[in-house]
């Protein structure tokens, strides 16, 4: 074997080990890969990129890869690796050529494709007689969970799920132009969002944020553009009191603090102490001193009732809106990832609503695209709580006026998200 073929075989074995572990353990690919690289520091930057990008591509195209014909499992594996390189136009040509030869395929660099139907045609040239329907790129149960979409929208959704998402950043405590200038000076290509003046896209560039002074000084945060929509729907004002009831690691708490110019008060709650500790680190780095953590470990509210100008309930969900960023979750989860959540979401929303003062705002959001976790939960809540009324929203990417706002990944090159804004009526 040539050195290139030996490297290609080594990569194939490592990727197979990780791929199998993820499918069997049902742990997220991010966690498994991070753990592997922590234990195996021998890999350089190029090795890590080949392993990581090929692994995620396997999950992105898994619905097609399992349809590839092969004489045996070894040939099937190398055909799957080669197919990922063909579809994603990976630049490690020597490795791809070696995989193609091991797969019993003629070396082929493929060609750029724009539409999924073109990608399917590329595979049909390699594997004549096999069919690669675009609907197979997500599990069959997913389709029944979506609200009514046109055929064109469904195709656009699949198209988005088949492309790597960009890295979105949010600027805080600094003029956006200054952040762009600093990142460009560090050698990065930066694109400002046309929708939000504090959002930046770095595309698919690799960046170690821990080496960037803007990040270390708390002037940059990683936050997908769809996630940033939630803060803009909340629209908190300086001096107000807000409760982020399901804060996680605190990305939206930090966004609210930035919008409030670090004036007012934000209580951030989560069921996990570790999440609140991570938020405290990020808030300290950002020099935001208006955020107070409050653990929410039981049914009892961790805050006073009817005391907040605004409450944000970013509810735990199936995360189907992040499938583009986490393609492994399409195949690790089952339909119960959606169907098990609505009752919990409604319960959290009902409890958290008690903290909204008369005239205050209640925002419900998920990173799910499933109707059962979104509009269905909101409608059940409103049916039992006549003192809350939906407010009309303007979709930031399409301009559409709606009470139920869904951000689809194809609308602005982002994740998917759902959000509504409700107002608690003043007592008579």
UniProtKB/TrEMBL annotation:
Family (UniProt): Belongs to the class I-like SAM-binding methyltransferase superfamily. RsmB/NOP family.
Active site residues according to the UniProt entry: 367 (nucleophile)
MF-aspect GO terms: methyltransferase activity
GO biological process assignments: methylation
Organism: Shewanella dokdonensis
Alphabetized Gene3D superfamilies for the sequence: Vaccinia Virus protein VP39 (3.40.50.150)
InterPro entries hit by this protein: MeTrfase_RsmB-F_NOP2_cat (IPR049560), MeTrfase_RsmB-F_NOP2_dom (IPR001678), RCMT (IPR023267), RsmB-like_ferredoxin (IPR054728), SAM-dependent_MTases_sf (IPR029063)
Identification of the protein by name: RsmB/NOP family class I SAM-dependent RNA methyltransferase
PANTHER family: NOL1_NOP2_SUN FAMILY PROTEIN _ ANTITERMINATION NUSB DOMAIN-CONTAINING PROTEIN, NOP2 YEAST -RELATED NOL1/NOP2/FMU SUN DOMAIN-CONTAINING
Protein keywords: Methyltransferase, RNA-binding, S-adenosyl-L-methionine, Transferase
Amino-acid positions noted as binding S-adenosyl-L-methionine in the UniProt annotation, renumbered to this chain: 270, 314
Domain SAM-dependent MTase RsmB/NOP-type intervals: 157-425
